[in-house]
Design goal:
Elements lengths: L4 H5 L2 H4 L3 E5 L10 E4 L13 E5 L8 H14 L3 E5 L10 H10 L3 E4 L5 H36 L3 H12 L3 E5 L4 E5 L5 H5 L2 H6 L7 E4 L4 E8 L2 E9 L35 H19 L7 H15 L4 H10 L8 E9 L24 H19 L4 E5 L4 E8 L5 H15 L16 E5 L9 H15 L16 H7 L4 H20 L5 H10 L4 H7 L4 H15 L6 H18 L2
Parallel strand pairs: 2-3, 3-4, 4-5
Antiparallel strand pairs: 1-5, 6-7, 6-10, 8-9, 9-10, 11-13, 11-14, 12-13
Helix pairs in contact: 3-4, 5-6, 5-9, 6-9, 10-11, 10-14, 12-13, 14-15, 15-20, 16-20, 17-18, 17-19, 18-19
């Protein structure tokens, strides 16, 4: 938000002094934080960096060594430039030794060949700085207002990202911990170019800190998460040196370069403060939106959903959940509890044919097809529970699935109760059966059950297990009446956990160094070497043949992988961990 030395030299009060640049042209784009008038040689001790120093030279040292030391001291504290008015101490020009010293230090040195009131210069520059600060403040206020509105409205991630790109004028990307893009807005740039090779590019963006700028890549990055658990990163690419406030204009003059603004002391390009505020507010809005769950169902259904969510997320004491359930006429304590999840195989209504006709229910008017289908499924599940004469909590647990917590008298009746529920559901929803009994196509509905538990404190585990099994079963072509955990293999288990931040963190911990190495050396791709070694049961000869490498070359690559990952590839435990991480990486990268 500060003007540069170049911009200051273009101001009318300075131009009236007939300025001439003597040395330090490379530093003309340094920001000017303040203007300071000085006539003493030891002024550097009173400066903090970023000042443009004005002087007539009457108090400067007379000897060459003193002038060199004066320039070195100014450069050492990070002043933006030195302006010397001729006519009092120096008549025709500044001493050559001063110009040479300024050139060596890259410090802009300017002569004013006509007498100029310094007060006019300071007034003009300080007015420019104050105006820029006011513009920055207004932009910051708009950022806070805009993202507060988005938080209140429960805006979707795509809308939050769009608003961030609009306010900044910069491309914005939201990614998960595995560097997969969740949402983006290219801000009028080419989206294909922006996202091309994103994972490798993102792995090279490694700023220091939770919110920081990576000058090598030009990306401003902040972590996204809530309740102490991060689940993604928000990145904004800042081009540097351009006024990015809403409706703002480029503060540079015609012909200026795009080297960007710089830190007053270090001279490194840094984004404006408002962009840091913007990405942090956007990240907070995204984290809050992930926690918000809106439901258009009736009050009783909302209570069911609140209680199921509390058991899944452990947001309420178990005793409170039991108390509120009893208030609904449902006893959960001292019962055998089983978590059940029912969902469609496809994500989109078109995958399973048209949604059930709501029958003109005015409560469904204006509801999105997916929401109407989910509500219809929830009602069907409730009806099946009543038909099977079972009791339990039931509600949608996410955008695609309905959860049930069955409350049974004892564990002996678990299988009988699940069978009765599945049969009632399939009678109620004919589309849940295969279209032709002889067809190999499975039904459209998946019923998954978790392990039975004897305590309400463990009910969340049974529900989570059922949801995970249901997700994994979507890719199982068998038409089983009820899916249980033994039906899901390791690859399926990892696939259903692919969006879990802890799994992504595990993959990054185990393979992150190797993935980063491959991103820097795309021709080597050591990950493929490691995959061949593990898939061949650690048989080096067979793995070398599978990788189409000579054994010496393959052994050298294995040794390099061991050094990069700091692991012993002859260790069974280490290789097992790496193999699981590879399977998890494949699950994360597979839609």
């Amino acid at each position: 938000m500060f003007p540069t030395v170049r911009q200051v030299l273009a101001l009318d009060p300075v131009r009236r002094g007939a300025p001439r640049l003597v040395a330090g042209e490379a530093g003309l784009d340094r920001p000017v934080r303040w203007v300071h008038v000085a006539e003493v040689p030891d002024i550097a001790t009173l400066l903090g960096g970023g000042e443009l120093v004005l002087t007539t030279g009457i108090g400067l040292p007379a000897d060459d060594a003193g002038l060199r030391a004066f320039i070195a001291d100014l450069a050492g504290v990070g002043v933006s430039g030195l302006v010397v008015e001729l006519g009092r101490r120096y008549l025709t020009g500044v001493p050559k030794v001063m110009a040479a010293a300024a050139g060596r230090h890259g410090l802009p040195l300017v002569e004013l060949r006509r007498a100029t009131p310094f007060v006019r210069i300071t007034e003009a520059v300080h007015a420019l700085i104050v105006d820029a600060q006011l513009t920055e403040l207004r932009a910051t206020e708009e950022i806070h207002q805009r993202f507060t509105e988005l938080s209140v409205e429960g805006a979707e991630p795509d809308e939050v990202i769009r608003q961030a790109a609009e306010l900044s004028g910069c491309p914005v990307v939201l990614e998960n911990l595995s560097r997969q893009v969740l949402a983006y807005d290219p801000a009028r740039e080419n989206a294909a170019l922006l996202l091309d090779g994103w994972e490798q590019h993102s792995r090279r963006i490694r700023p220091a800190g939770r919110t920081a700028y990576d000058p090598d890549s030009g990306w401003l990055v902040t972590m996204v998460g809530a309740r102490g658990e991060d689940w993604g990163r928000l990145l904004l690419r800042w081009p540097g040196g351009v006024d990015l406030s809403p409706g703002g204009a480029d503060p540079r003059g015609p012909g200026d370069d795009e080297s960007g603004k710089a830190d007053a002391v270090s001279g490194l390009a840094v984004p404006p403060t408002r962009l840091t505020i913007l990405v942090e507010r956007a990240a907070s809005t995204l984290a809050l939106g992930r926690l918000i769950r809106r439901d258009a169902e009736g009050w009783e259904r909302q209570i069911h959903r609140t209680l199921l969510t509390a058991l899944l997320d452990r947001t309420r004491p178990v005793d409170e959940v039991a108390l509120r359930a009893r208030a609904l006429g449902l006893t959960l304590d001292r019962r055998h509890l089983v978590g059940v999840v029912v969902r469609h195989r496809g994500e989109d209504p078109a995958d399973n044919g048209p949604a059930a006709d709501p029958g003109g229910d005015p409560g469904l008017a204006g509801v999105e097809p997916g929401a109407a289908r989910l509500r219809d499924l929830a009602e069907t599940v409730g009806q099946a529970l009543r038909e099977a004469k079972l009791t339990g909590l039931t509600s949608a647990v996410d955008d695609q699935a309905v959860g049930v917590l069955l409350a049974l008298a004892d564990a002996a009746g678990e299988e009988r109760a699940l069978t009765a529920f599945a049969a009632a559901l399939r009678r109620t929803r004919p589309d849940s059966r295969p279209p032709d009994p002889a067809s190999r196509r499975p039904g459209n509905l998946i019923i998954a059950a978790g392990s039975g538990v004897s305590s309400l404190r463990e009910a969340g585990r049974s529900l989570i297990e059922a949801r995970q099994v249901a997700e994994a079963a979507r890719r199982d072509r068998r038409d089983l009446p009820i899916f249980r955990l033994p039906h899901v293999g390791l690859a399926g288990l990892l696939h259903l956990l692919r969006d879990e931040p802890r799994l992504q963190t595990f993959v990054e911990r185990e393979l992150g160094a190797l993935l980063a190495y491959d991103a820097r050396h795309p021709r080597e791709q050591l990950l493929g070497t490691l995959r061949a070694y593990l898939e061949q049961g650690r048989n080096k000869s067979a793995a070398a043949s599978a990788a189409h490498l000579s054994r010496p070359a393959f052994y050298e690559r294995l040794a390099r992988i061991g050094r990069i990952l700091d692991v012993d590839l002859d260790s069974v435990d280490a290789c097992l961990s790496l193999h699981v991480a590879l399977l998890a990486l494949d699950a994360i990268r597979t839609p």
